[in-house]
Amino acid sequence: MLSNFHVFTLARTGERFKVSKMLLHQSLQDALEEDWRKQLEDFASKSQVLFDPSYCPDDNEVLFIEDYEMPKVIRDLSCQSVAELRKLKQSDLKAGNIKAVIGIAESQNEGPIFMFQKFSRAHILKPGMFFLLERGTLTNLNKHAITLGNKLSAVYRTELRTLYFTNFRATNSFLPLLKYYNEATNVEIKQILTQKFFYTESIDSIFVFLNQWFRREFSILKQSGILDRFEPKEVARISRSFNLEIDTVDNKIVFPNEKKEARNLLVFLNEQLFYGPITGKLFETNSKRVLETQG
């Protein structure tokens, strides 16, 4: 059961955050509180999966991070102190840097709960671009207005210090998550490529096409332990079952200098390939869920 419900906006510019309270007429306050209560119930009904950068959640799942460090400007808020925040102004809507609308409420069994809806420029209705139909006649919207979504993007439970969210990239737009999302550094990638598993002709040529995807995959590869548990010749042998051409030199796997071939190798090493059980076609997946079978 939720009580003392309030909503406010979160503007973000880099690592600078600003919060502003949204003043609502009582009828709108009541309607919004009921709507967000239902959204929270729907969000809470989903299965919870510990955040893993390599895991892609289903629609009925949410990811969570324990001991999440909420930005101080939000962490210090309570249902009572929200009333002391500055009011949301037209100039805030014009600035276009609001990243989330946040609901805060008290729960009977725990401390304050923060509920987040992702917000973007697309949620802002600008004068001259939208019209109201009144008594059969269209009239111009003469001030900025906003629309809200019908699903929560994230929930933070202060009692548990745990953040729950449905999508990493969406949530990272309004809350800092990168510290929980490991990307391999240049030094780490060089260490991986120069150890006993790989043979590289030119590390510099590989660094040319390294982007966020490659850094994430190198991090996943490092954490998986595959490079320590398997011999390069064994991995090369297994790759033939997936129609991959993996070359070896001095019992080391040759890491390609071309972006496409390098990507294919990392997808294979991180076990993101599978054969369709019916068609027999080879697919790539970004979900690392282990399939449980009877037997």
How would you portray this structure in words?
This protein is an alpha+beta fold. The chain folds into 2 domains: 2-180, no CATH class; 186-284, no CATH class. 28% of the residues lie in helices and 26% in strands. The protein contains 10 helices and 17 strands. It has helices at residues 26-44, 72-75, 90-95, 168-172, 186-193, 203-208, 212-224, 226-229, 232-239, 259-269, and strands at residues 2-13, 16-21, 47-50, 61-66, 98-107, 112-118, 124-125, 131-134, 137-140, 145-146, 154-157, 162-165, 198-199, 248-249, 252-254, 273-275, 282-284. The strands form 5 sheets. An 8-stranded mixed beta sheet has the order 2-1-5-6-11-12-4-3. Strand 5 (98-107) and strand 6 (112-118) form a beta hairpin. Helix 7 (212-224) runs parallel beside helix 10 (259-269). The protein is elongated. The model is unreliable at 291-295 (pLDDT under 50).
Architecture blueprint of SSEs:
Layout: E1 2-13, E2 16-21, H1 26-44, E3 47-50, E4 61-66, H2 72-75, H3 90-95, E5 98-107, E6 112-118, E7 124-125, E8 131-134, E9 137-140, E10 145-146, E11 154-157, E12 162-165, H4 168-172, H5 186-193, E13 198-199, H6 203-208, H7 212-224, H8 226-229, H9 232-239, E14 248-249, E15 252-254, H10 259-269, E16 273-275, E17 282-284
Parallel strand pairs: 3-4, 13-15
Antiparallel strand pairs: 1-2, 1-5, 4-12, 5-6, 6-11, 7-10, 8-9, 11-12, 14-15, 16-17
Give a quick set of tags describing it:
295 residues; alpha+beta; 2 domains; eight-stranded mixed β-sheet; three-stranded mixed β-sheet; 17 strands; disordered C terminus
